[in-house]
């Protein structure tokens, strides 16, 4: 009987340890102060109709010394700097941003759209953009590291 109780206890513990909380749980929230700052692109992955690619280094970074970045300012302006050469030549795109719940919306500019914040810490930010095209649902996910 002791073995049966011990086995049931182990199975219950194992089952509970497999349950995880996702970042879309109702308890996840952040303030505008937490997300403002400069965020350097680090990783990316994609999903097509729910099938995810492997996470990879952000393919837009032309040089390790000049990573592309996204800057959200306290005055609700944004700056995206896209380095397009290994010599750190760049293009700047500016726009405005707003926050509603866990969604950041960029108005105007190349990054126009809504981005769901999946996770945010003092050193990293993960966002997703979901869109549909020709019967497919795409999710682009980007991981950033805090640059300042």
From TrEMBL:
Protein's recorded name: Lipocalin-like domain-containing protein
What residue range is the signal peptide? 1-22
InterPro entries attached to this UniProt entry: Lipocalin-like
Keyword Membrane set for record? no
Q: Which domain of life is it from?
A: Bacteria
Q: PROSITE patterns, alphabetically?
A: PROKAR_LIPOPROTEIN (PS51257)
Q: Name one Pfam family in it.
A: Lipocalin_4
Q: Which organism is it from?
A: Flavobacterium silvaticum
Asked whether the UniProt record includes Signal among its keywords, one would answer yes
All residue ranges annotated as the Lipocalin-like domain in the record: 48-127
Q: Which UniProt keywords apply?
A: Signal
